Amino acid sequence: MSTGIRRYFRSLLDMYVSTIVFTSLIILSLGYFQLAFPLDHNNGINNYLENNNHTSFSILSGNTSQKNEALPYPNINWENPSAIEQAKIFSPPRVEKVTDGIYSAIGYGVANVMMVEGSDGIIIVDTGNSVDQAQKILQAFRDITSKPIVAVIYTNSHPDHTGGAGVFVEDGLKTGNKVDVIAQESILGSYYASYGMLAQQRSIANIFWGGLLLPKNDTDSVISYGIGPSWISGNRSFIKPTIFFNETLDTNISGVNIKLVHAPGETLDNIIVWLPKQRVLFAGDNIYRAFPELSSMTGAKYKDVPQWISSLDKMRSLNASYLVPSHTVPVLGYENVTDVLTSYRDGIAFVYDQTVRFINKGLTPDELIQAVILPQYLRDHPWLQERYGQLSWSVRGIYSGLVGWNTGDATWFNPVTPEERGNKIVQSVGGSDRAISLIRASIKDGDYNWAAELATYVLNAYPDNVEAKLLKAGALRIMGWESPTSGARNWYLTQANILEGNINATTIMNQPKYNTLDEAIATVPIKNILSLLQYRLDPLKSQNTTATLGIYLNDTKEGYTLEIRRAVLEYKDSFPTKYDIALYTNSDVLKEILLGQSNLQKAVDLGIAKIVGGNVTGLNNIANLFEYKLKAPIHRIQGVN
Ligand SMILES: [Zn+2]
Questions:
Q1: Is 19 domain-assigned?
Q2: Residue 538 located in a structural domain
Q3: What percent of the chain has pLDDT over 90?
Q4: Which pLDDT score, from 0 to 100, does residue 559 have?
Q5: Spacing, Cα 111 to ligand 1 middle (Å)
Q6: How far is the CA of 394 from the centre of ligand 1 (A)?
């Protein structure tokens, strides 16, 4: 049992259990827990899925009525049954035959890898997240056929679809074939954008959303990723596409007629793959067996929901007999496919249309999420369960995408600071001790959200109040355990563990791994990196600086301008006609300098960099105006001081 859980139970004991009788009961029930759920630290979630009967763990096993009154945490089930049912989809990892010649490898990683068998070669649709995952899948495919790989198709740019490409391409090339890699034309832009101006924010959000720092084999562990088993990272091998298309591409590969169609939805570059003869439709990320993320928790761009609906309509019009999504499971049979596609489309359309309807009636986001409720038949549909996306986030995302920040109440135009609000609310309820007892009462009443909110006010006023931290952690933990939605569970539990001090977020987030400029420098073209520098200019250091820097790369014959005008950087894709200082070098050297693997003086001494109009010191003075390593200031509301 982790320190977090121990501390959590200890805090419960401290707070609520005053008699030796109850203490003994708790210890007994914890003993029961350990016997019934031996958490083998060498095995993952799949293991416990296989080895226990999924009955709920309750702190209060046995005779509960009396104890429920004594403790405000009755019958806590740390495994939401809906989340457990979703996790079973991915366990064990396997290759499923969809129909003759069509296979989907499920559960090896977050996304599936599909195989289409042609007359003398095979086509891979999506490639998995990592080299390791791709190797395992290729091995499993090799039990089915030894035909060479002749083409790879990406349905979108995300790493779980593109990260294993090298394994399949290399395997194909070994046989002397050429291997086409096919994708929609915006894929490279999307791929590079993942290393763009908000890469660090995304990276931090992913820690919470993916539960990357949660303990393993524990009641706080990740149950699944909603649309895949827990995120398994590893070395990636993205291969640049060799064939791009815009709207559609009709082709024949190894005797298989294939139609590729741009169908934006979950991502802008999403494509669908249609095999007219076999009547098989590969959906990419436009549908999976869970309510969609119409608006992302981690901060992806506003998604154009009507465009997603029209892509689903395009898919429906094909009258497919087999639907093969890149996440979760395939659907077999025309009627099933029609039902799933139509219900999914209608579920999304209902949320969008009713949100718009209520926006026009003047409802605010907090009111909208109460008003927009799916009709029962859609609420019950197995493909619309909130195990990945959540309806309320979708509604909020649509509101902010269509309306913006103003909820209509002028009170919130220029509100008091969080600290002031915390102070005033705590005073209004009669001080922090009184606030703490109100938080406890709310937990006892099952009003966990309000308990967490009130604890937040206390913490905004008194950031070091340990009781408020532990109570907030307890309330968040229960909401996390109760949530069927993977991202919500992980976020609640990560925040709870941060509040308890089990996860040191500041230290972890300030590691180079999460300062993603390094990864960008290693991955994307120089001009993408230079265009990111404007987001790292320190206004205090640069407020009196006016300077134009020219950069010319001898190998690519490309030039760039960085013009600093008193706290603002203007970047241009061309060499300046007039400059104060200029650097001539080549791409590799510039990358090495940016990565700190080589310094400017050394490059100049070696003759692989030349400075005109100044010297190394002058150039370094300009470089020092930028905040190269962004320290993550995580607000104490998430538990960090
Ligand atoms: Zn995906």
A1: yes
A2: yes
A3: 67
A4: 97
A5: 6
A6: 18
Note the pLDDT tens digit of each residue in 545-558. 999 999 999 999 99
Domain membership flag for residue 637? no
Instruction: Tell me the CA–centroid distance for residue 382 and ligand 1, in Å.
Output: 19
Identify the domain boundary among 382, 403, 424: 403
The residues, any chain, with a CB within 8 Å of residue 258's CB and separated by 6 or more, are 116, 123, 250, 251, 252, 273, 274, 275
Residues with CB under 5 A from ligand 1 (ion): 111, 158, 285
The residues near 162 (Cβ < 8 Å, ≥ 6 apart) are 126, 127, 154, 191, 236, 238, 239
Q: What are phi and psi of 114, to 5 degrees?
A: -110, 150
Distance (angstroms) between ligand 1 centre and the Cα of 168 equals 18
Strands 122-125 and 149-153: parallel
Q: How far does residue 195's CA lie from ligand 1's centre (Å)?
A: 17
Cβ atoms of 218 and 39 within 8 Å: the answer is: yes
The answer to the question of residue 552 being in a domain is yes
Residue 145 and residue 171 in one domain: yes
- How would you write 591-614 as a 3-class SS string? HHHHCCCCCHHHHHHCCCCEEECC
**Selection from 277, 283, 363, 294 nearest residue 324 by Cα:** 283
Nearest to 625 by CA among 548, 543, 560: 543
CA of 110 to the centre of ligand 1 (A): 7
Q: What is the pTM of this model?
A: 0.85
Last residue of a domain, one of 28, 52, 80: 80
| pLDDT (0 to 100) of residue 206 | 86
Residues 156 and 252 in one domain: yes
Q: Same structural domain for residues 438 and 528?
A: no
DSSP category for residue 628? -
Burial of 53 (0-12, 13-18, 19+ CB in 10 A): exposed
Cα of 589 vs centre of ligand 1, distance in Å, is 35
Indicate the number of domains in the chain: 5
At 512 the pLDDT is 58
What is the domain range of residue 460?
A: 412-505
Instruction: Please give the distance, rounded to the nearest whole angstrom, from the Cα atom of residue 461 to the centre of ligand 1.
Output: 41
pLDDT in tens, 580-593: 999 999 998 888 88
Do 391 and 311 share a structural domain? no
Look up the CATH number of the domain holding residue 118.
Answer: 3.60.15.30
